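anyone seen this seq b4? input:
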Amino acid sequence: MLPRSLEATCRDLADPNRKVRLSAVRDAPRHSDSEGRERILPLLIRILDESTDSGLRVAVLVALADGGMHEAIGNILPLLTDGDLDVRRYALLALGELAEEGDSLVLSKIAPFLGATDPRVRYQALSATFALAGTGASAALCSAKDDADARIRELLARLLGELLDLGNDEAARAALHSLTGDEHPLVRAVAQLMCLERGIDAPTDGVVALVARALRPGEPRDEQLAIELSGRLRIRPAEPALTRRAFGILGLSADPFRFHARVALAALGHAAAVRSVERGLRRGNRLERFALLSAMAEVRARAFAPLIEAAQLDPELRESAEEALLALERENS
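predicted toks r here
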């Protein structure tokens, strides 16, 4: 089906058929940046205020967040005490997306939910608090490191990593490092990734588990980052798994991160991987050559400098090669 026009969306937001209304709500954010915003917003708020259908109200909260409709904040705040748990959760999510950073009123309304009984509510409250408070969320984040729910501790590890990117915070650093020995394997692995990516010494067993696919990653980026760090930091225990991923059976691999694995192996001094990377940069197809240069930029092994410099001579690769060299210089400066 083609996307709804503004007129059709406005019409269907008032349709008595639930499926039609729900579909129209999901189309609504498409019109949030046009002249239709003034027409769409009151219709969404009306559903929020009048409907008893929690699924429909949740969809409206998502649409408001996706459409950046901050004008609805006043209508969302009362939903923090709604009788439906999902509505409360998504109200927190929407506030985290829509409120201005540092909004003290919204932050004060969110704060009590950091200690909510349901972990799904705590999860959204923690995420919204960081989104709105930034470095001011340090105390709230650090106090969550002992949360009983593993998904919250995993989220916390990611947020603490982002917090450290905003500036030096010893309490956040200590909280993040404490999670590198967490009892839950994925929490442990994510915390290790966050530490090692930022130059903080940490164990590597979780990184190796991600490379070996002994763990299912929490986010797609986890697996790639684990492979890149294995090469960048010369994590030797990851070598057998990297070899499988790089070359598969009989030298043929369909692994989505096979080029990253080859570059990581090459950084570890694996002879076949070094030859494969050299050959790929000289004679590989366009996808392979760009993928190898991208991986080199992330693995950042100084030994790659001659190969990257040679790639600069190819007009098609020059820009990617320059970016890879800049990454090497930053890593080794």
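Residues 99-203 form a domain with the Leucine-rich Repeat Variant fold (CATH 1.25.10). The chain has three domains: 1-95, 99-203, 237-333. kinda curious what u guys think
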